Amino acid sequence: MILKALRKNRTITIKYYENGMFQTCSGRVSNLNLSEQTLSLMDEQQKIYSIRLSGIKDIQSR
C-alpha cells in the first residue's frame, strides 16, 4: 500500500521519525532508492528531503 501511494505523481505528506523526533514533510517523490532504503521528497521550494523508509509512520495523498 505504501509503494502504491508513492507511485502516483501527486503531492504527498509523510509523517516520519528522524533522530528520535517526529516530523512531517509534504512534496512529490523525486527518487526511491530501495538498496539504501531511502525516499527523496522535493517540496514546493525545490528543497529535497531524504527520508529512511524504516522511519515512515504515515503517508497521505492529496
TrEMBL record:
Domain of life: Bacteria
Listed Pfam families: YolD (PF08863)
Protein name, UniProt field: YolD-like protein
Species, as recorded: Jeotgalibacillus soli
